[in-house]
Design goal:
By secondary structure, the chain is an alpha/beta fold. Helix content is 40%, strand content 18%. It has two domains: 157 residues, ATPase, nucleotide binding domain (Nucleotidyltransferase, domain 5); 166 residues, 2-Layer Sandwich (Nucleotidyltransferase, domain 5), CATH 3.30.420. It is globular, with a radius of gyration of 20 Å. The structure holds adenosine-5'-triphosphate and magnesium ion. The site of adenosine-5'-triphosphate (ATP) has 22 residues, from helix 4, helix 5 and helix 6.
């Protein structure tokens, strides 16, 4: 089954074709991504109306480009998957409208995919490591993106139980806001991580939020305030900025690692999968891999380009559901707020 995936939930237009008849890396026949970062940079954040309008401009050309790269005509598609939510309603409506209309015209099934299920399944798109292969449920998932920080017990694909989540800022949001207050340009998260590579470990030590409390929830907004105070009282040199970035990154990484280990204990699992933009963070990857290995388990990540928003994860998640016989009615569906636990199981 050849499924076209469309992602337009926020500030990235992503398109991909996933072919369930092919194995390994070849199954992802083509993908293309257009980022709106430059458009929103002058405002220091995503402007929803501008985001929607840019998706309108970019989506159809990107669909054409992706099909051409896959060597396929529209009539070769067997299904269409689009992000139905959660996200910005105007942005979602563009992908939903185009995806639904295309499926209608081609007389193939369409399905609205949950964006966070897309992220969660991204580590399963490719073959995994040569020894263990692709991870299979049950496992624990850490979703760490710009809008979410969640620990989820995955009993089966489609059966998700929330173990804990952030009470305020998401981990990616904390990276972006902390970068901004130290003067890094938008979106600062990846730049802050790059800066941290040059910082001295231990030069600044920030508290690990909520690790002394029971439960698996997170809170990152206080960490941002600690950084603000440290930065304000410092000499604000390049070296100090790197040291503070390192202190901040270490606090986030260690907090996430401690809670992940507790989540594995709570779920009785030794397999952790990690997805979302912060999953691209090198130090987080190393720390979680070491923690899982110490328990005799493993931590699995998508390659960094599949951690942030992309069309491949939507094509893949949609293909799994379409293959299981699920599809939506002939309606354009956009669900700005959507609880992942309400999704139907796959089989
Ligand atoms: N190397 C990195 N280290 C830390 N954070 C990173 C890194 N790379 C990307 N990020 C962060 O990842 C986030 C973007 O990830 P993603 O595209 O998954 O989020 P989103 O789609 O905006 O949010 P959501 O999926 O919750 O709607 C940004 O907050 C960015 O700062
Ligand atoms: Mg995302």
């Amino acid at each position: 089954m050849r499924v076209l995936g469309i992602e337009t939930s926020c500030d990235e237009t992503g398109v991909a074709v996933y072919d369930t008849a092919l194995r390994g890396a070849a199954a992802l026949r083509a993908q293309a991504l257009y980022s709106q970062i430059a458009l929103h940079a002058e405002y220091g954040g995503v402007v929803p109306e501008l985001a929607s309008r840019d998706h309108v401009r970019k989506l159809v050309p990107l669909v054409r480009q992706t099909l051409a790269e896959a060597g396929l005509a529209p009539a070769d598609l067997d299904g269409v998957a689009y992000t139905a939510g959660p996200g910005l309603v105007g942005a979602l409506l563009v992908g939903a409208g185009v995806g639904r209309a295309l499926a209608w015209a081609l007389d193939v099934p369409a399905i609205g995919v949950h964006h966070m299920e897309g992220h969660l399944l991204a580590p399963l798109i490719e073959d995994g490591d040569p020894v263990h292969g692709r991870p299979a449920p049950p496992f624990v998932a850490l979703l760490v993106s710009g809008g979410h920080t969640q620990l989820v017990a995955v009993e089966a694909i489609g059966r998700y139980r929330l173990l804990g989540e952030t009470l305020d800022d998401a981990a990616g949001e904390a990276f972006d806001k902390t970068a901004k207050l130290m003067g890094l340009p938008y979106p600062g998260g990846p730049q802050l991580a790059a800066l941290a590579e040059r910082g001295t470990p231990g030069a600044y030590r920030f508290a690990r939020p909520m690790i002394d409390r029971p439960g698996l929830d997170f809170s990152f907004s206080g960490l941002k305030t600690q950084v603000l105070l440290a930065w304000r009282d410092s000499d604000q040199s390049e070296a100090t900025r790197a040291d503070i970035a390192r202190g901040f990154e270490d606090a986030v990484v260690e907090t996430l690692a401690i809670k992940c280990e507790r989540a594995l204990d709570a779920a009785g699992s030794d397999t952790l999968i990690v997805a979302g933009g912060v999953g691209a963070n090198r130090r987080l990857r190393e720390r979680l891999q070491a923690m899982a290995a110490r328990r005799g388990g493993r931590a699995c990540f998508p390659r960094p380009a599949l951690c942030t928003d992309n069309g491949a994860m939507i094509a893949f998640a949609g293909a799994l559901r379409l293959q299981a016989g699920q599809h939506d009615d002939a309606a354009v569906r956009a669900v700005p707020r959507w609880d992942m636990a309400s999704l139907p199981p796959l089989a």
